[in-house]
Design brief:
Length: 493
């Protein structure tokens, strides 16, 4: 009887109380419901962000995020790296919170957590399957050698091997200051000038000096072409986050020949954000180009504006004294271990006078006559140099640059280059400026708009007026006619 009563009680308890399996199932069902709700809300928020920010920005920063909700009022967004998490928290967190409140008014707080730093005791459920993220002992950019990411540095391009003169003294002084002072003084430092005038030499010299004096600073030197190559490769293999870390977590970024990203809109967009990130961190940016920021064509205005906000240093075409000094230095280095060959001073002076295009042509000419003398046991004379370099001398004689015309005309009339390019209309300045424009039309292949841009961004109609005015004066004013003829002879010599 007693046993029968116990069995009845146990049956009643079984009917009214859920089993342990039922409790576990109910708990799992509740967790699944919470996860599904979070997934639905996050997908709608993602759609809002994609529509508001655009596909490119969304894919760069939000594509890899996942979301969890520990409770109804709190959301955690999981970023793949601390870098992405920090950027989103700084720039987008209030916007995400507003969008999420539009979907669920109960949500009061959103936090960002990098997956590398997620707590291991209570791993939060994820919205969708993700690859395994393992903590790295070093940042991504340190897993590659510097030379693998950037371009190799030329061991001969140091400050000790750089010959200074009036045409490059500002650029040289600025480069020295940036390399030797630990704090950022000019940001960005923008070096510009024609081909073969020493821009790349100075950039390599800065990199060598920083690595020597403060080896713990992370220096990355790349050409604009290589920057574009790395970016395109990152997009192709869907690894833009690694690219961003490689270029945005350095102490000094140096990009050579920035004009080569002209017309490359996606690369310009990435460079713009890379520049802003480094600038905001007060990390040094050094850029070079063949023209000033305001004259860069097919490059966005916002990039040009930022490139010109630091120190802009122009490297002018070399003058005779500087070319002679460069030749003397190069000759000493090339003949240091060869006592059988000598280059006399009159040969160096001849080369300095006749080859004014750029330093590379100058050095190449010197190497050619030394090699010829070595192979053929010839004595290096002016006649020998003329014979060996007749093609280069012929080409050099035909090349006259706008910068050279401006410099020679300014020297002839005792003007500063800044006055030549200024907006001042006083005749003592305007007349030499018109003569320079006239000579540019006569001696170069540039179009009228291109000449105008070289004279402080003037319109082509200004150039037309200058050319017509000087043509008239050459017929009526003997002094002007003589001045123009003298300048032309000097430029064609």
């Amino acid at each position: 009887m007693v046993q029968e009563n116990k069995n009845k009680q146990m049956d009643a308890m079984a009917k009214t109380a859920p089993s342990q399996n039922q409790k576990q199932f109910g708990s799992a069902a509740s967790a699944d419901s919470q996860t599904n709700l979070c997934m639905q809300e996050w997908q709608r928020v993602r759609s809002r962000l994609r529509a508001e920010l655009g596909e490119a920005t969304f894919n760069s920063w939000f594509q890899s995020l996942t979301a969890t909700k520990p409770n109804n009022k709190r959301v955690i967004l999981h970023a793949p790296t601390p870098f992405i998490g920090s950027w989103i928290e700084t720039h987008y967190l209030p916007r995400i919170l507003n969008h999420w409140k539009s979907e669920n008014k109960i949500v009061k707080r959103i936090e960002i957590m990098a997956r590398d730093h997620m707590p291991q005791t209570e791993p939060a459920p994820i919205v969708r399957p993700q690859p395994v993220y393992r903590p790295r002992s070093k940042p991504v950019f340190e897993t590659h050698s510097r030379d693998d990411i950037g371009a190799p540095l030329n061991p001969h391009y140091t400050f000790d091997n750089f010959i200074t003169g009036k045409s490059n003294e500002l650029a040289h002084a600025a480069a020295r200051r940036v390399a030797e002072v630990g704090e950022v003084v000019f940001n960005p430092l923008f070096l510009y000038g024609g081909v073969g005038l020493g821009k790349t030499h100075l950039m390599h010299a800065i990199a060598w000096e920083i690595r020597r004096s403060t080896p713990d600073r992370r220096v990355l030197y790349v050409s604009a072409e290589k920057f574009m190559y790395h970016f395109v490769r990152a997009v192709r293999f869907k690894d833009t986050m690694t690219f961003k870390q490689q270029f945005r977590e350095v102490d000094v970024l140096m990009v050579d020949d920035i004009q080569f990203i002209a017309g490359k809109e996606s690369t310009q967009e990435e460079f713009f954000h890379t520049f802003n990130t480094l600038f905001d961190k007060n990390h040094q940016v050094i850029i070079s180009a063949d023209r000033s920021p305001s004259d860069l064509e097919d490059i966005g205005d916002r990039i040009c504006s930022r490139l010109g906000c630091g120190l802009v240093a122009d490297i002018h075409p070399t003058d005779y004294e500087l070319r002679l000094g460069i030749l003397q230095s190069k000759a000493d280095n090339l003949l240091r271990n060869n006592k059988e060959i000598a280059v006399t001073e009159d040969v160096l002076e001849f080369l300095a006078r006749r080859i004014s295009s750029n330093v590379r042509d100058l050095e190449g000419a010197l190497r050619r006559i030394i090699a010829s003398a070595s192979f053929n046991s010839k004595l290096i004379t002016i006649e020998m140099a003329k014979s060996e370099l007749r093609d280069l001398l012929r080409t050099s004689a035909k090349q006259v640059t706008v910068e050279e015309i401006q410099r020679i005309v300014a020297d002839y009339y005792n003007l500063r280059m800044s006055e030549m390019l200024s907006t001042r209309r006083a005749q003592i300045i305007a007349r030499p400026r018109q003569i320079a424009m006239y000579l540019c039309k006569q001696l170069t292949m540039l179009s009228l708009p291109e000449i105008g841009r070289k004279f402080g961004g003037r319109d082509h109609t200004t150039v037309i007026h200058a050319v017509n005015r000087i043509q008239e004066l050459c017929q009526t004013d003997a002094t002007i006619n003589e001045d123009v003829a003298s300048l032309r002879r000097r430029l064609e010599a």
